[in-house]
Amino acid sequence: MMEITDLTEEERIRLEAEEIVKREKFEREQAKKEKELYERKTAECKNILDNLPGLGVALVFPNAKDMYSGILAELVNEAGLIMQQTERIEVTKQMLEDIFYFAEPDEEEEEKEEKEEQEAKTDNEEGEMSELDAVILSNFNKESLEILLSKQGVALMIKAKSGHEIESILDEVLKLVYGEMMAPPGSEESPAKLLCKVEDDEESGETKYLTGIWAPRNYCMMATCLKQFFPKSAIQYAIPEPEPIPPHYAVVFDITKFHDALAVINKYPHDIMNHGFFTTDKPEEAELIAKTYHKLEKSGKRTFTEKLVIAVSAKKSECMFELAQLEPIRMSPNTEEGEKECEMFFPEELEDGPEEQLEEEEDEEEEEGEVAIGEGDQTHKIRTEDGDEEGDEDEDEDEGDEWEEEEGEFAGDESEEEGTAEVGLSPESAPVEAAPEPAPEIASEPAAEEAPPPAE
């Protein structure tokens, strides 16, 4: 006899299918977030380097801050460089995670990273350690990291002397810090070696090496160091994190109220998160017919019973109030239900909004490629999703969907009146604000800009 808590085979299969869908959705969302984070950080680095060209960075550890000046002074002068600015700083774990986001370990560092990760897991009861933590520990041993995070260090902003030309400030700083090796642990007699403190642990008998000075090894890390260590100079060029999706409602109208709803949409464009024409007002059954009225007319699927679904932000009440006055056939009772319904009507599309659909579809068809951030031949390779290189202006990119008025017959009208406008979404009509022209030396995919509000 089957217990009440037991599942039938059909129910078990359905639950497993639902779990698979949820897992796949979560993985898609995570991949999308990671891609957006990478693109935003890359664009931010480009922006900083564009506006603060020729500036290099080095970090002096707390245990070396009393010695670095005498060791570096002559070498800086001989290299044709100057210390533009020094700043006493308290380094945090978050700052290091931001800087090492773009770290590119070589084979030796990867082996060291694995060793450090195993050691850290031994010390950690749960045995958990992030990839980023392992990368940081592959650059600084545990003792050096503890000192860096507990005491003040010194950040150095370095540039070429006036009239002295250099090919790459990144290379010049690496050579200044590490000598001809241009990488840790540094050549003999390099500042990295001279400022490295050696201590013998009396208890364990082991020799400890404390890092004295460090320099970023690629342009993105260098740009991030400028932002973190010299915020007064660089923070104005940082790109703020995008705002989270606001609470929202789903509002559904019969097609016959399209014009009335459109007037409100045009009045409050920033409160409209998405819209489309669907087969029914039931979110679990609804199928998208078209994103624009123009496409609806050409879809060949006209039934004249279509439903206009609008995802509306709950940040302000005016838009929702006016839409409610039009007596929609369905409206979410609260934002919790609204978010669930909008997710069914517009899966994976709410963040992009109604004007991004065509662009997203085209991006999926493009191939991956590499672009570079850096000076001259010394570049930091950046993997992009679309394969385009910065500097190639895409003047012919398709513009987003936007509400516009067109002359013609509107569904539900029995007669045509002269001057009556038919309003719909048309990708050909809406002007989209062009992305800022990138510098030719530094390339990355620019952050997407919000399209201007549609004209009434």
TrEMBL record:
Compositional bias, Acidic residues, is annotated for 104-117, 351-370, 386-420
- Please list the residue ranges that the record marks as compositionally biased, kind Low complexity: 426-450
Recorded hits in InterPro entries, A to Z, give: DUF4746
Q: Print the keywords alphabetically.
A: Coiled coil
Record-annotated DUF4746 domain positions: 107-357
The superkingdom of the source organism is Eukaryota
Please report the name of this protein according to its UniProt entry.
DUF4746 domain-containing protein
Protein species of origin: Molorchus minor
List the top taxonomic levels of the source. Eukaryota, Metazoa, Ecdysozoa, Arthropoda, Hexapoda
